[in-house]
Amino acid sequence: MSTTSRETQTFLRLFRAVVIFVVIGLLSWFVYQNATDPKATHPFKLGLDLAGGSHLIYEADVSGIEEAEVPELMNVLRDVIERRINIFGVSEPIVRVERSSFVTEVPIERLVIELPGVTNVSDAVAEIGRTPLLEFKLLDPSLLAQQQALDSLKSIATTGAAVSNVTINGEAVTEQDPFTDTGLTGRYLETARLEFAGGQSGQLANEPLVSVSFTPEGSALFAEITRNNVGEQLGIFLDGELLSAPVINEPITGGTAIISGGFTPDEARELAQNLSFGALPVPIELQSTQTIDATLGVNVLRDSVTAGVFGIIIISLFMALWYRLPGLVAAVALTMYVIITLAIFMFIPVTLTAAGLAGFVLSLGMAVDANILVFERMKEEYRAGKGSREAAETGFNRAWSAIRDSNVTGLLSAIILFWFGTSLIKGFALVLGIGTIIAMVSAITLTRTLLVALPDVKRNDSHFWSYMFGTGLVKK
Questions:
Q1: CATH 3.30.1360.200 applies to domain 135-282
Q2: CATH number for the domain formed by residue range(s) 3-45+293-468
Q3: Closest Cα to residue 149, out of 136, 163, 161, 135?
Q4: CB neighbour list of residue 54: distance below 8 Å, 6 or more residues apart
Q5: pTM for this model (two decimals)
Q6: DSSP letter (8 states) at residue 439
Q7: Which of 102, 205, 238, 455 places its Cα 20 to 30 Å from the Cα of 402?
Q8: For residue 455, pLDDT beyond 90
Q9: Cα(first)–Cα(last) distance of the chain, in Å?
Q10: Chain centroid to CA 423: how far?
């Protein structure tokens, strides 16, 4: 190889190393700015256990729904609640669906809501509680007659006469809702808007009304209900309260219904907004609440950062003491690995939890594993008389299969944990998986580029660089 060619290759090696340092420097500035600036565009996204906030668990009542439709409706419920929370300014809410079916005969559908920064549980519950449940029910005349008769007998009982074993036409009468379900609920709602009546159909002029439009599926169901029940009363319920019960005069095929209930303009406007952003497809009931103090999260975050710093220092010291110059290169590459990982956490963004931080600290040790495999192979080649650059290249080639297999195995484990685990395990698995990928890439790119950019020496050379490419605490 000519002298000019060797000088060109040396220049390219140094140039690639300089480019890496420049890119890492820019990423370091990006991470620092976004971590310290309160108005940063890409801040770290902290989970509830680090940022503090409210943790709510709701149970959905799906008893009257076909089992095949439950997953879709729960996803709709999740989206509705998430939109509803967002319009009230709650930052970065996390809403997810969970199903419990291992300890109960009937699966229990739950909605888990995490509201970072909202430490007042009553406020959080109020935000969710303002989401209305819209239902359309038909009035059954026979059930209404029985209920009216029962109410009359009860009114007589208040005068002193006892009422028991009430019967009508020889049949026992019990108190029950005279309205029957039609299957038409807020799950079929598309939009709702404020309108004012023109004074027709018995309505007052300029009376505030809420006009609701259904989805194509809901329009077809509404048309079928009105077509089959002309002359009957259709009750419109909001959160179980009867707002109005207009008589169906003719089939309504336009997919639009009018809700009137003596609203003021502000009440009708608020109802239209609530329905547009949060008509629930299924009723939900609050089961448990938990408040996590932000102070606890700060302590966990500080302890995790301390553990990470100590981990980097200890690993770097071991690598430098045992592998000397290649170990120092590995320590620099490990620092670069941390910066790249933190930048990716900001870009995606990844929600960092206490479990996720534990996975990140664990990945620091895994990031060095590939370097150790390479250095051991490199040590063998270097002792056999090869130059440091050739030994490095050969070491990487020989160690690649072991690096690939070990990292792929770790990545598969992270994927399995993320796929089947709970939210706590998913945070750990996601960070561990990302860390594994970055560790493998950094080992075969960063460490390799920096090693081959160093001076090329052999074991028998007498100068300082020869000793620095040795291994252990003494020269062998």
A1: yes
A2: 1.20.1640.10
A3: 163
A4: 48, 113, 114, 115, 118, 119, 120, 121, 124, 289, 290, 291, 292
A5: 0.60
A6: H
A7: 455
A8: no
A9: 31
A10: 9
